[in-house]
Protein backbone atom coordinates (compact mmCIF):
# COMPACT_ATOMS: atom_id res chain seq x y z
CA UNK A 1 0.00 0.00 0.00
CA UNK A 2 1.38 3.42 -0.93
CA UNK A 3 0.59 6.45 1.18
CA UNK A 4 1.62 9.92 0.13
CA UNK A 5 1.75 13.25 1.85
CA UNK A 6 3.88 16.14 0.64
CA UNK A 7 7.46 14.95 0.16
CA UNK A 8 6.83 11.58 1.82
CA UNK A 9 5.91 8.31 0.08
CA UNK A 10 5.39 5.19 2.21
CA UNK A 11 4.90 1.57 1.16
CA UNK A 12 3.69 -1.00 3.68
CA UNK A 13 2.83 -4.69 3.51
CA UNK A 14 -0.07 -5.22 1.11
CA UNK A 15 -3.54 -5.01 2.72
CA UNK A 16 -4.55 -8.40 1.28
CA UNK A 17 -1.86 -10.07 3.38
CA UNK A 18 -2.97 -8.05 6.40
CA UNK A 19 -6.57 -9.26 5.97
CA UNK A 20 -5.53 -12.92 5.84
CA UNK A 21 -3.31 -12.46 8.88
CA UNK A 22 -6.25 -10.84 10.69
CA UNK A 23 -8.51 -13.78 9.79
CA UNK A 24 -5.92 -16.24 11.12
CA UNK A 25 -5.48 -14.18 14.30
CA UNK A 26 -9.26 -13.98 14.79
CA UNK A 27 -9.60 -17.76 14.48
CA UNK A 28 -6.81 -18.22 17.01
CA UNK A 29 -8.61 -15.84 19.38
CA UNK A 30 -11.87 -17.77 19.00
CA UNK A 31 -10.06 -21.02 19.78
CA UNK A 32 -8.54 -19.42 22.88
CA UNK A 33 -11.88 -18.08 24.00
CA UNK A 34 -13.39 -21.52 23.47
CA UNK A 35 -10.65 -23.09 25.59
CA UNK A 36 -11.28 -20.67 28.45
CA UNK A 37 -15.06 -21.18 28.23
CA UNK A 38 -14.58 -24.96 28.32
CA UNK A 39 -12.41 -24.57 31.41
CA UNK A 40 -14.98 -22.25 33.04
CA UNK A 41 -17.75 -24.83 32.62
CA UNK A 42 -15.64 -27.82 33.69
CA UNK A 43 -12.68 -26.77 35.82
CA UNK A 44 -10.56 -29.82 35.20
CA UNK A 45 -6.79 -29.38 35.36
CA UNK A 46 -6.25 -30.48 31.77
CA UNK A 47 -8.58 -27.81 30.41
CA UNK A 48 -6.68 -25.08 32.23
CA UNK A 49 -3.44 -26.22 30.60
CA UNK A 50 -5.11 -26.23 27.18
CA UNK A 51 -6.41 -22.70 27.75
CA UNK A 52 -2.98 -21.47 28.86
CA UNK A 53 -1.29 -23.06 25.83
CA UNK A 54 -3.87 -21.46 23.51
CA UNK A 55 -3.28 -18.08 25.17
CA UNK A 56 0.49 -18.44 24.75
CA UNK A 57 0.02 -19.31 21.07
CA UNK A 58 -2.14 -16.23 20.50
CA UNK A 59 0.49 -14.08 22.22
CA UNK A 60 3.22 -15.53 19.98
CA UNK A 61 1.12 -15.05 16.84
CA UNK A 62 0.41 -11.45 17.89
CA UNK A 63 4.12 -10.74 18.35
CA UNK A 64 5.03 -12.27 15.01
CA UNK A 65 2.18 -10.43 13.29
CA UNK A 66 3.36 -7.14 14.74
CA UNK A 67 6.97 -7.70 13.70
CA UNK A 68 6.39 -9.15 10.24
CA UNK A 69 3.26 -7.35 9.03
CA UNK A 70 2.78 -4.12 10.96
CA UNK A 71 6.34 -2.85 11.35
CA UNK A 72 7.90 -3.20 7.85
CA UNK A 73 7.71 -0.21 5.52
CA UNK A 74 9.72 1.78 3.00
CA UNK A 75 9.65 5.56 3.34
CA UNK A 76 11.00 8.23 1.02
CA UNK A 77 11.45 11.50 2.89
CA UNK A 78 13.25 14.21 0.94
CA UNK A 79 16.68 12.78 0.15
CA UNK A 80 16.47 9.86 2.58
CA UNK A 81 15.20 6.34 1.98
CA UNK A 82 14.19 4.64 5.23
CA UNK A 83 13.80 0.85 5.07
CA UNK A 84 12.16 -0.61 8.17
CA UNK A 85 12.42 -4.40 8.32
CA UNK A 86 11.14 -6.62 11.16
CA UNK A 87 14.38 -6.47 13.15
CA UNK A 88 16.38 -3.58 11.68
CA UNK A 89 16.03 -0.09 10.21
CA UNK A 90 18.25 1.25 7.43
CA UNK A 91 18.68 4.87 6.28
CA UNK A 92 20.06 5.42 2.80
CA UNK A 93 20.68 8.61 0.85
CA UNK A 94 18.75 8.71 -2.41
CA UNK A 95 21.87 9.32 -4.48
CA UNK A 96 23.50 6.19 -3.00
CA UNK A 97 20.77 3.92 -4.42
CA UNK A 98 21.70 2.87 -7.97
CA UNK A 99 19.08 0.16 -8.62
CA UNK A 100 16.06 -1.59 -7.14
CA UNK A 101 15.43 -5.21 -8.09
CA UNK A 102 13.31 -8.05 -6.82
CA UNK A 103 15.15 -10.50 -4.65
CA UNK A 104 14.79 -13.63 -2.56
CA UNK A 105 11.19 -14.37 -1.51
CA UNK A 106 9.97 -11.34 -3.46
CA UNK A 107 11.59 -8.74 -1.21
CA UNK A 108 12.91 -5.70 -3.05
CA UNK A 109 16.69 -5.24 -3.05
CA UNK A 110 18.16 -1.74 -2.98
CA UNK A 111 21.61 -1.77 -4.62
CA UNK A 112 23.97 0.90 -3.26
CA UNK A 113 26.95 2.64 -4.84
CA UNK A 114 29.34 0.96 -2.41
CA UNK A 115 28.25 -2.50 -3.63
CA UNK A 116 26.18 -3.42 -0.59
CA UNK A 117 22.55 -4.47 -0.87
CA UNK A 118 19.66 -3.75 1.48
CA UNK A 119 16.48 -5.81 1.36
CA UNK A 120 13.04 -4.28 1.96
CA UNK A 121 10.59 -6.80 3.40
CA UNK A 122 7.60 -4.45 2.98
CA UNK A 123 7.90 -4.63 -0.81
CA UNK A 124 7.91 -8.44 -0.87
CA UNK A 125 4.64 -9.09 -2.63
CA UNK A 126 5.30 -12.32 -4.51
CA UNK A 127 2.18 -13.96 -3.10
CA UNK A 128 -0.02 -10.90 -3.68
CA UNK A 129 0.80 -10.82 -7.40
CA UNK A 130 1.57 -7.09 -7.52
CA UNK A 131 5.34 -7.10 -7.07
CA UNK A 132 6.14 -5.55 -10.48
CA UNK A 133 3.70 -2.68 -9.98
CA UNK A 134 5.16 -1.73 -6.61
CA UNK A 135 8.75 -1.97 -7.85
CA UNK A 136 7.82 0.33 -10.75
CA UNK A 137 6.40 2.88 -8.30
CA UNK A 138 9.54 2.76 -6.15
CA UNK A 139 11.81 3.14 -9.18
CA UNK A 140 9.75 6.08 -10.41
CA UNK A 141 9.98 7.87 -7.04
CA UNK A 142 13.75 7.28 -6.94
CA UNK A 143 14.16 8.33 -10.57
CA UNK A 144 15.73 5.02 -11.66
Shape: elongated
Major beta sheet, specifics? 5 strands, antiparallel
User: What Rg, in angstroms, do the CA atoms define?
Assistant: 20 Å
How many separate helices?
A: 3
Order of helices and strands: EEHHEEEEEEH
Explained architecture:
- With 144 residues, the protein is α+β, with helices and mostly antiparallel strands.
- It is 45% helix and 27% strand.
- The protein contains three helices and eight strands, in the order ββααββββββα.
- The chain has helices spanning 15-41, 45-70, 131-142; strands spanning 2-5, 8-12, 73-77, 80-84, 89-93, 97-102, 108-112, 117-120.
- It has a five-stranded antiparallel beta sheet with strand order 1-2-3-4-5, with helices on one face.
- The two termini are 20 Å apart.
- The mean pLDDT is 80.
Summary of the model, kept short:
The protein is α+β, with helices and mostly antiparallel strands. The chain is 45% helix and 27% strand.
Summary keywords:
single chain, 144 residues, alpha+beta, 5-stranded antiparallel sheet, 3 helices, 27% strand, elongated
